[in-house]
Amino acid sequence: LCSNNNPYASFGATLARDEEQNLWSTPHDVTHTEADDDRVLYNMIVVRNQLDKDSEEWQKLNYDIYTLRQTRKEVRSRWKHILEDLGFQKEADSLLSVTKLSIISDSQNMGKARDILLKLLEETNIFPTSWELSERYLFVVDRLIALDAADEFFKMASAVYPKRPGGDRADEGPRAPQS
């Protein structure tokens, strides 16, 4: 039943393989780039695929992979929400799009972008409590600096996703910004 000579053996697996190779959020996501967090996810997928599907280890890894992908989608959604509130309705997806070809617009902005990103991590709940900073958002903050919108983005993130006492996440969703 299983033959290595079958030219159609991989046909049905192509879609699944595309989904597995896309580590950022959803299949065929054009924003995919390989960063440290992508390699962690990729390694989890490789290990899971080597396990028996009926095993407890496979189920745990599958759940962890799903959870990580959902967390990434949630963070991206938060960023997109703020960008749209700042008036970037049509540009939000392109501002969040990071590929292997993405570059920092001005090397002098790198330090400022890193500082703003760390400030977002420490002073807002735009990222979940256990989030490890992704290089992807360094590119996004750099773009915001180039558009002179980074400070406004931080203010909006602080209003919509304020840091809760004790480091609790803002799980109830975005709040309306305070005027």
Automatic annotation (TrEMBL):
Pfam families per record: MREG
Tell me which species this is from: Edolisoma coerulescens
InterPro entries (UniProt xref): Melanoregulin (IPR031638)
GO CC terms? melanosome
> Can you tell me where the transmembrane regions are?
none
**Protein name as catalogued:** MREG protein
One GO term (biological process)? melanosome transport
Source taxon at top rank: Eukaryota
- Name the gene behind this protein: Mreg
